[in-house]
Amino acid sequence: xxxxxxxxxxxxxxxxxxxxxxxxxxxxxxxxxxxxxxxxxxxxxxxxxxxxxxxxxxxxxxxxxxxxxxxxxxxxxxxxxxxxxxxxxxxxxxxxxxxxxxxxxxxxxxxxxxxxxxxxxxxxxxxxxxxxxxxxxxxxxxxxxxxxxxxxxxxxxxxxxxxxxxxxxxxxxxxxxxxxxxxxxxxxxxxxxxxxxxxxxxxxxxxxxxxxxxxxxxxxxxxxxxxxxxxxxxxxxxxxxxxxxxxxx
Length: 249
What we know:
By secondary structure, the chain is of the alpha+beta class. It has three helices and 20 strands. Strands 7, 8, 9, 10, 11, 12, 16, 17 and 18 form a nine-stranded antiparallel sheet that branches. Strands 13-14-15 form a three-stranded antiparallel sheet, with no helix packed on it. Keywords: Bacterial flagellum, Cell projection, Cilium, Flagellum.
C-alpha cells in the first residue's frame, strides 16, 4: 500500500515540476533568443521510481533507498530571425552567445534586444552592459553600424569595438538563469571567443518555443497530475479504512 502512496506522490511531484517548466517556456515565448527546456524523466514511464544503491539515494518510507530521477536540459535548437529595422537589435547567425556584464558576473545570452543607457553604453535592459573585446561597449550615439563579424563602427566609420561573441565547448556546463541568461565560472569563460561569427543588425532571433506543443503538453500534464492526485486520495482512503478495521479487532 505504501509503495502505491509513494508512487502516486512522486507522480504528482514530477508532473508539477514539468508544468513549472512548461509554464516558464510559455511565459518566455516572446523573449528574443530564448531556448526552451524539457523535463527528462527516466522513471515516470517506468513506475516513476528507480531503486538505486549509493550515497545519493533518498530514503523514502521504510523501503529500499529510492530517488526521483529527472533533469531539465535546455534545448539549444536554433530559431528564425525576424527583421525589426531597429539598429540596436542584433542576432547571431549560427552558434555563439553575446556576453553581458551584470554586476560582478558575466552572462551569456542569445537575446540581442539591446538598447543604450544614460551613459551611452550598449545594454540589455534589466541584465547589464554588452561586452566587446575591449570591455563594455560605449556608443554615445544611436548612429552606428555593425559588420557581420561583430565589429561596431560609429557614424564616421571609426571602429568602436567588436562584440564579444563566445562559444562554450560544452553547452551542458552552462548554468541557466532567468530570461534566457546563462553563466559559467570565470575559468571556463576564458578563451571561449567564437571563430567564424556572423552578426546581423536590425534583426532579432525569436525564441524556439512551439506554443502549440507547449500548450498541448501542459494540458496532458495537468490531466496526469489529476490522475495521480485521485490515486493518492484513493490510497489514503484505503489506508484509513484498513486502520479503522484493525482498530475493531
